[in-house]
Specification:
Layout (H helix, E strand, L loop, with lengths): L7 H14 L3 H4 L3 E6 L2 H4 L1 H16 L3 E6 L2 H10 L6 E2 L2 E2 L3 H25 L4 E4 L7 E5 L14 E6 L1 H9 L3 E5 L1 E3 L5 E3 L2 H12 L3 E6 L17 E3 H9 L7 H13 L4 E6 L5 H7 L6 E4 L1
Parallel strand pairs: 1-2, 1-11, 2-8, 5-8, 11-13, 12-14
Antiparallel strand pairs: 3-4, 6-7, 9-10, 13-14
Helix pairs in contact: 1-4, 5-6, 8-10, 9-10
The protein binds adenosine-5'-diphosphate and N-acetyl-L-glutamyl 5-phosphate (X2W).
Family: Belongs to the acetylglutamate kinase family. ArgB subfamily.
Keywords: Amino-acid biosynthesis, Arginine biosynthesis, ATP-binding, Cytoplasm, Kinase, Nucleotide-binding, Transferase
Pfam families: AA_kinase (PF00696)
């Protein structure tokens, strides 16, 4: 992928080609697609540019992409730089007050604004939001069950997503870019896993699809063997995998997010390889699709 911004006319030309070549794009027009942006697709500059170009293109052809981004890796780097040691319990970062502040600085102040700037540079119109903006993501403290419960500090769980604000931006031609920070009833911030937020946003929007970009081909029966990719799962199978042994760590909140979205009426959720160039377009505009699809 060569660098530099694409001009408006070039984007429109490409959009025209897509509309002619792929008539079913029309069936997606006006529908929301929640895209969790993370992993290599976010940290590798060339891949980043490719994903952002595709996002802008989707908007141009009439779809409504909504971005929820991660950035946990970047937050860990900053913590270490400042002499803090990241600690996770079941994939969730133990978040004391200082870590919470840093999470806001890194995820909202830095990662979010970088994505917004890049989308705008590529010809789109992005608006960056955290859950605090317009009470977008109302959250409460997450309790860990069990007798060995650990206090995760400011880790939150989503109580409500203000879908109206997102619809407002979508209708006016903006691409909402959301960081996974929630706000409590007293205005206190909460750190929430970005996959979880993506699932909740898709559910609240009744999106047409939830797409989670990650660093592996999809869900594997054996995580060490890419040949064991599972192409399709139903909700029951997804639930079963979460409670079993095949799916671990970061894949657990992804599958849970898919289940949440499907239960709310989102027809399909996909976990796809963000390292693959144009993964989004391949998923949306080819019959085969890629990665793992979770259906109701
Ligand atoms: N069954 C599985 N199939 C695929 N990946 C799995 C599985 N179980 C655990 N994983 C792990 O989940 C990781 C993806 O989650 P995560 O690292 O949080 O991704 P991201 O940074 O994209 O949010 C994979 O890199 C893999 O190590
Ligand atoms: C509670 C919790 O763990 N929050 C995550 C939020 C960011 C995130 O989820 O980023 P990725 O999708 O890149 O992992 C964290 O602090 O890392």
């Amino acid at each position: 992928m060569s660098g530099g911004p694409l001009g408006q006319s070039e984007l429109e030309r490409r959009a025209g080609v897509l509309i002619e070549a792929l008539p079913y794009i029309r069936s997606f027009a006006g529908k929301s697609f929640v895209i969790k942006y993370g992993g290599s697709a976010m940290s590798d500059p060339a891949l980043q540019q490719a994903v952002i170009t595709d996002l802008v293109l989707l908007k141009y052809v009439g779809l409504h992409p909504v971005v929820v981004h991660g950035g946990g890796g970047r937050l860990s780097q900053w913590m270490r730089r400042l002499g803090m040691e990241p600690r996770f319990v079941e994939g969730l970062r133990v978040t004391d007050a200082e870590t919470m502040q840093l999470a806001q600085m890194v995820l909202v102040g830095s990662v979010n604004q970088e994505i917004v700037a890049l989308i705008n540079r590529m010809g789109g119109r992005a608006v960056g939001l955290s859950g605090t903006d317009g009470n977008l993501i109302v959250a409460r403290k997450r309790q860990t069950p069990g007798k060995e419960a650990v206090d995760l500090g400011f880790v939150g769980e989503v109580e409500k997503v203000n879908a109206g604000l997102i619809h407002l931006l979508e209708r006016d031609g903006y691409i909402p870019v959301i960081s996974s920070i929630g706000v409590g009833l007293s205005g206190e911030p909460y750190n929430i896993n970005a996959d979880t937020v993506a699932g909740e946003v898709a559910a609240a929007l009744k999106a047409d699809k939830l797409i989670l970009l990650t660093d592996v081909r999809g869900v594997m029966e054996d995580p060490a063997d890419p040949g064991t990719l599972i192409s399709t799962l139903d909700v029951e199978q997804a639930r079963h995998l979460v409670t079993g042994h095949a799916v671990k760590e970061g894949m657990i909140p992804k599958l849970e997010a898919c289940v949440k979205a499907l239960e709310a009426g989102v027809p399909r959720a996909h976990i796809i390889d963000g390292r693959r160039e144009h993964a989004l377009l391949l998923e949306l505009f080819t019959d085969r699709g890629i990665g793992t699809m979770v259906v109701g």
